[in-house]
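Reviewer 2 asked us to include a model.

Predict the structure of this chain.
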Amino acid sequence: MPFQLTAPYPPAGDQPQAIDELVAGLRAGQRHQTLLGVTGSGKTFTVANVIARIGKPTLVLSHNKTLAAQLYGEFRQYFPENAVGYFISYYDYYQPEAYVPSTNTYIAKDASIKTTSTGCGSRPPRCCSSATTW
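Predicted model (structure tokens):
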């Protein structure tokens, strides 16, 4: 099923150029690209347009739970006919085991595990391979 972008407005300002450049970069095989913009500049909408044009399942990573939930809500609005889900890690905090040779320092593994469910955010990220919304 193709990605069906639903938006009440077309891309504007710098968005069309950014969309074209990001899509061209993905098609050229660029592994790393950066979209810069201030808060409220339409970065999520720009990425939604890129996803719709590329037509491939996409994994969006967030550094915190609040932003993950916000992105989930926005992408659900942009893609109401497509599978959109989010997953919040089992861990609130995870520090892998590490060794710093320059200071001969060993850092033990440490973790803080959630004790409460986060609703739909606790589902595994199977939506990238699923054709249905859950």
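Helices lie at 15-27, 43-54, 65-78. The chain has a mean pLDDT of 82. We have added this to the supplementary material.
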